[in-house]
Amino acid sequence: xxxxxxxxxxxxxxxxxxxxxxxxxxxxxxxxxxxxxxxxxxxxxxxxxxxxxxxxxxxxxxxxxxxxxxxxxxxxxxxxxxxxxxxxxxxxxxxxxxxxxxxxxxxxxxxxxxxxxxxxxxxxxxxxxxxxxxxxxxxxxxxxxxxxxxxxxxxxxxxxxxxxxxxxxxxxxxxxxxxxxxxxxxxxxxxxxxxxxxxxxxxxxxxxxxxxxxxxxxxxxxxxxxxxxxxxxxxxxxxxxxxxxxxxxxxxxxxxxxxxxxxxxxxxxxxxxxxxxxxxxxxxxxxxxxxxxxxxxxxxxxxxxxxxxxxxxxxxxxxxxxxxxxxxxxxxxxxxxxxxxxxx
Length: 344
Known about the structure:
alpha/beta; D-Maltodextrin-Binding Protein, domain 2; six-stranded mixed sheet; 46% helix; disordered N terminus
């Protein structure tokens, strides 16, 4: 009887230990760049370490860089939705038409130049106007890749007319439309191919954020880097998001949800934006140290570029209206919210 009593008394403890073990969750986190990229080493890894620590080891990550789970960049949202990955770094820019409200964030001269300003504006806009784009996901963060810089090999761009006929690498659809409106020729290619493309004369330069340039050695094949005036919206920006599978999030215990929520949202946005802005500043300094020239478009020429590129926004408004959205309102709100964070 003593033995039976002892076993019965120990049973809840054993069941409790088993339950605790069962609560340990490992999240599959996917992204499309290498493990040497700042996002991997300075955002995802420390973020995952904090989840592990805050949860007492019950919430862990397994990071899969460089599309190790298969598929393409455009397929990352589906990988999250279908549970191939629990979490993924995606961009609405790379999945044309899938996130229609978020496309307003890509329109020319809409968002602040810095990643922090752009990220705060994108988060604000998304919470108010674009959450329906992400109804299939748990949104962990939204942030900005910061404004593109126009880098050229031999021809400086000082006035809008200088862009005519220039073949520039474009990161996505709306930068391409911006360049076309100004008479340039967009060429889509991944960052890793930019340097070879310039050195072989396939392209004359590239549109990319500062932090990308030294990472792929664009500084070695370009001489000029062109920005707009300070405290004005950037040429174009790329919105990014960290999305989570809804069922996976819902399956977490309240305690693990609280850990994830605490480290996501605004804290994750601020961490990511700082990494991007620090990378941009370091890259800008590296370009100058290399002997490259940074040119700033004069105010009058900047306004002329805005006027010419206005056709891109007008076309988007028509497309948004055709989808049942109020394109004019969304574009106006994107501008208003972007202006709100210009000094960040």
